[in-house]
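Researcher: Here's the sequence for the chain we discussed earlier.
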Amino acid sequence: MKNINQYSTLVFDCDGVILNSNFQKIEAYRNAAIIFGAETHEAEALVKYHIELTGISRNIKFHYFLETIMGRKATEDDMNFLIKSLNNEVISLLKNCEITSGLEELKKQTQGKTWMIASGGDQEELRFLFSDKKIDHLFDGGIFGSPKSKHEIIESHISGDTFHPALFLGDSLYDIETAKKYNLDFIFVSDWTDLENWESICKSYNVESIKTVSDLVIT
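Model: Thanks. This is the structure I predict for it:
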């Protein structure tokens, strides 16, 4: 197990790491597509694409949904409608979702270390949910999400004098690839992931895994 106190910055994904929200997000995408007027098979195609691209911005997913699945131009009005519908669905479904245990304890054990969120979720939605759940104060390095990609979020912070060394905690292939791209150490958080065959993927990328964030707490 890595000694997390060797790091200056801890970067957390949100869905499946901080919140048990991956499967609620799946339902939110399905509902947003149905509200838009999609047939059941079209909504399921969006859900499939969302799962395949876990961690990727919703803007990319909805552009694909409109252009490829629905076969229509991805207009600004349609994109805005879908994003607003998804936001409403996510907030409704996630207000009562489970928060990972051990956050306060881990924060105490990493005093002086910067915590930040880098998520594919909507940034304003994330900030609202974290405030509503009273955990926003833990992430003193900021809560960041879409419309910026995780790559853009990391790039905007990586040159800071106090960023390195950094550890990324995530639960998707995109998280692993992001960490590798920017030479961040990585731990895969498995308990709430929706990534199939995550064990073999972690092995192939030679990354360590834990069940939950609370596994990092020293008891």
